[in-house]
Amino acid sequence: MNFDPFPWLTAIILFPIVAGLFIPLIPDKDGKTVRWFALVVGLIDFAAIIYAFYTGYDLNEPGLQLVESYTWIPDLDLKWSLAADGLSMPLIILTGFITTLAIMAAWPVTFKPKLFYFLMLAMYGGQIAVFAVQDMLLFFLVWELELVPVYLILSIWGGKKRLYAATKFILYTAGGSLFILVAALTMAFYGDTVTFDMAAIANKDFGLGLQLLLYAGFLIAYGVKLPIFPLHTWLPDAHGEATAPAHMLLAGILLKMGGYALIRMNAGMLPDAHVKFAPVLVILGIVNIIYAALTSFAQRNLKRKIAYSSISHMGFVLIGMASFTNLGLSGAILQMISHGLIGASLFFMVGATYDRTHTLMLDEMGGVGKQMKKVFAMWTACSLASLALPGMSGFVAELMVFVGFATSDAYSATFRVIVVLLAAVGVILTPIYLLSMLREIFYGEENPELVKSQALVDAEPREVFIIGSLLVPIIAIGLYPKAATQIYEATEAQLTTMLRGHVPALVAVAEPATVTIEPLVAEPAIAPAIDVAPEPTAITVEADVVDESLLVKPSEPLEPSDPDNPQIEF
Prior knowledge:
Blueprint: E1 2-3, H1 8-20, H2 32-56, E2 65-73, E3 78-84, H3 89-105, H4 113-132, H5 136-145, H6 147-157, H7 162-189, H8 198-202, H9 208-225, H10 234-241, H11 244-269, H12 271-298, H13 302-321, H14 326-357, H15 373-386, H16 393-406, H17 413-443, H18 448-451, H19 461-479, H20 482-500, E4 513-517, E5 539-543
Parallel strand pairs: 1-2
Antiparallel strand pairs: 2-3, 4-5
């Protein structure tokens, strides 16, 4: 562990929350002063994240860094414990970047601006806390507290069905959180010592049966947030009613909390159960990719179309984390980073389009390309990023998942081929529904009233800056992926090595086979003076799997089996 003398993570988490508490004291009637205050707070916090990363984070260290630990309740070993490693650090940076841009995207908000910007800053600190805490009970608390500002933003600043969408969101996520609480308490009190420390819990020896139960509970809880089919139905409704800044945080950060927790806890703390569940994750990933892509293709509502596109892209995270390869898991993490940027850009463009057309139905749009050339160019760039155009981050992430899983030695060749072919179907569908969407919005059949509307103004500098800021890292990662992968590759390699060491727990048990091994000793040319040679004997071995490479001559040295190259036939 790498301890830092200054509590950077605590400061980064608490600063936006504490600063937000001063917003009611700001004399402001129209919200202009408040929004500048919130933006400055966001920029300062993001600058602190970058400074802490460059001064206190070692790219070659796979373990926890920037560690802070303060005892809370000694008898239960409860601590305010924070740290960052390769899995959490890129997501903390992503949170600071996306949230700061989301505050800028909230410029048009004029209804209760003080409350709105306070909730935005509270989400800022809460989401970083989710990625940084190292105590199971504290993780549950910040996971729950982070839901409060999301619910309020949806229910107050949403569309006509905002209360329905917000209620559905809170019921799904709070219901899933019950599984986190039960699992956390079970893991903490299991064994001779009571502890909520994640590192200590990871070292406990849970039986396979208990691991499977805990894994299933976590999978439900985090599957709601990722989301995984069929726990996804809250997301289209939430996106359908949210405002543009809320969209950016939902797609850019909130979904990544589910993927992060699956990798951190399901794979990292319950490795034997992860090996058992791995084929299930792959199948769920394929269902996510194809089902959501087909559903997105059929949507006529612009927000719901992009929402289902997000669900489809999250399927690659499931496949990558179940690949048991460095390339596959690295691709899954990169997909979370990439989609955070791309999803935020797409939903910002949805909000910008709605502000001008006052409709979300594709049937009511059309022919607005001439009036909004900059908006069309921005939409096109974001859509090309989403469909994984080479040279952009989405292409690199999905390619890494494809190649990582295709070359995995943990599955049979037949299963790998089927999975890759099915995932390719989703990749083919994505450009179809995105490019057809662009055609309908900008060059479809003209809506005379809409085309003549004075509201069809082209993109303003603020909007160009936001999209440009998102496209820069998207293109940079696409051209030079190591800029992102070097942050987490040490942690990812350590996790993959650990998981591969547990893969034999899933080896399929074949019917016992009887193997007769005859000693391969030639008859001597000249009889020995003293007859001491025993009669040839037969050795009967009960084995689950027959490996002909183990049938060796006595003169040959017996090579040890390769523990780093196990295989699961599925």
